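Example record

One chain of 350 residues, shown exactly as stored in the release files.
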Amino acid sequence: MSYTLSELAELLHGKIAGNPDYIIESPGKIEEAKKNQLTFIANDKYAGYLSESQAGAFLVPDNFDITQHIDKNYILVPDVYQSVSILLELFEQKKRKSGISHLSFLDQSASIDEDSWIGAYVIAQANVVVQKGCQIYPTVYLGKDVSIGEGTVIYPGVRIMDNCVIGNQCIIHSNSVIGSDGFGFAPQKDGSFAKIPQIGNVILEDYVEIGASCTIDRASMGSTLIKKGAKLDNLIQIAHNVEIGENTVIAAQTGIAGSTKIGKNCMIGGQVGIVGHLTIADGTQIQAKSGLSKSIKKEGSKLYGYPAIEYGNYLKSYAIFKNLQDLQAKVKMLESKIKETKDVDESKND
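Predicted structure tokens for this chain:
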């Protein structure tokens, strides 16, 4: 599907400089875009590409100087990145499909909206519900009583286990597992461990995105809960009964132990480790490779280190411990001088 510049400008609440009837068929990178594509320039350092790019139109900030290349077509907008996001979503809709592959395996009790797409070798067990506009890619497994909300996209190889609930407009990337057993075991007198049944589920609220190869464990009782708008990167482990607050973002390879509750609008860097049963206040920021061992009560805290401390204190401490070898050498030198002074004093007393 193609759009005129005027149609795109109306969608983006932007202004046109150039031909409003120019046809755009897709977005493209500025270095590679063709005449039927629209690209973008978010700041002046990329302005040099204007003379070289073959793009048919450019999405630019509304204060961008277009006088150097007045022969080009432009859409001027207040926020380029937000507009790019809207455009990509618009063109993504073109790829959406509907229908059910004859190679899928759906229980007779499963309810699949006719506007959704079910790819080859998808398995849907008893009482699965897939709502309008979902895109379920090949080899996805949906366990008993799983519910998938409107417009959700689930990529190949995802496993969603029994009773889990996925909200509207969620995205789950390839090979993630939602609802695997939590890590619950009771130590026995003989030193062995007895498995504790995990009878809860996982709930993803609306607009949640889960990266590739993540694992989100079902609750032992109740629900492991990922709240509205939260975004998880690839290779993240979320343990049983964890709660992730609204619009919290978590980078790759982070692990969160059981029953920890993370507030809304938090930002957690890559390879962070968080122990269980903590409460983390809204707006907390945790730098990559940090380890969190205690609850954070102050909203907007910034933490760094292992174990994590207040970010400013960490930087001050780092200024000291990066020079520990030099400081040690100075201490040894001072100790040696003190000893020499004491020896001299003792020899005088003798």
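Notes: Residues 315-350 form one domain.
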